[in-house]
Design brief:
The complex is a heterodimer of chains A (113) and B (113). With 113 residues, chain A is mostly beta strands. Chain A has strands spanning 3-6, 10-14, 19-21, 23-26, 32-38, 45-50, 56-58, 64-68, 73-78, 87-94, 102-103, 107-112. The radius of gyration of chain A is 13 Å and the shape is globular. Chain A starts with a strand and ends with a strand. In chain B, a hairpin with a 6-residue loop joins strand 7 (65-68) and strand 8 (75-79). The model of chain B has no long low-confidence stretch (mean pLDDT 95). Chain B is globular and about 35 Å long. Chain B has strands spanning 5-7, 10-13, 19-24, 31-37, 44-50, 53-56, 65-68, 75-79, 88-95, 103-104, 108-112. The chains are: A mainly beta (113), B mainly beta (113). The A-B interface holds A 4, 32, 34, 36, 42-46, 49, 90, 92, 97-106 and B 3, 33, 40-45, 48, 50, 55-56, 91, 93, 98-99, 101-107.
């Protein structure tokens, strides 16, 4: 069965610090990978996605993620976080076409100004 | 483009009562999902529809949960009778097809007391 593991439950950073959130998945076949963000009181929003091609994916708000197939990883990065990045971040994977997203447990990011 | 609409946004019921949630997906989206998100966890798929047919309901507790999408557009999720552990956010999501990007609604918050 597919599963997604997010290494960090809660990350606390100061503004301008760099961010890397880990995500590993278990699935042997072709995957689509996603990062979603949930700001306080808001719905899940897509940050970025990887379907195929360049393994370095750029998303909204300066976020990027790198797909490393050999490590089954899809880590999220941002060089300089802002207070407004305070949110919960979810990594998700979808296996063969037609299946639904499987989510990790999420990482809460708190950024202090 | 209008997003995924859900109602009600908030509901408090006593255990053993019933509740129903409604979802209207993005126009033209054939695939509709219901997820359950318990506090502190990632969303978990309950059921996936393709038009008005069920694709995956393997994680739906069928003794108390039911869902339908009769005309292949909007959908209803029902819980009867509710248990305390059903307290969660119920997320509806849709995608153009089963391989497309999935967009989420704001969720229906259920508290069972």
């Amino acid at each position: 069965a597919q599963s997604v593991s997010q290494h960090n439950h809660h990350v606390i950073l100061s503004e301008a610090a760099s961010l890397e959130l880990g995500c590993n998945y278990s699935y042997g076949g072709t995957v689509n990978l996603f990062w979603y963000v949930q700001y306080p009181g808001q719905h899940l929003q897509l940050l970025l996605k990887y379907f195929s091609g360049d393994p370095l994916v750029k998303g909204i708000k300066g976020f990027e993620a790198e797909f490393i197939k050999s490590k089954f990883s899809f880590n999220l990065r941002k060089p300089s976080v802002q207070w407004s990045d305070t949110a919960e971040y979810f990594c998700a994977v979808r296996g063969q076409a037609g299946t639904a997203l499987i989510f990790g447990k999420g990482t809460t990011l708190s950024v202090s100004s | 483009e209008a997003g995924v609409a859900q109602s009600p946004r908030y509901k408090i019921i006593e255990k053993r009562q019933s509740v129903a949630f409604w979802c209207n997906p993005i126009s033209g989206h054939a695939t509709l999902y219901w997820y359950q998100q318990i506090l502190g966890q990632g969303p978990k798929l309950l059921i996936q529809f393709q038009n008005n047919g069920v694709v995956d309901d393997s994680q739906l507790p069928k003794d108390r949960f039911s869902a339908e999408r009769l005309k292949g557009v909007d959908s209803t999720l029902k819980i009867q009778p509710a248990k305390l552990e059903d307290s969660a956010v119920y997320l509806c999501a849709s995608s153009r097809d089963s391989g497309g990007t999935i967009y989420f609604g704001e969720g229906s918050w259920l508290t069972v007391v």
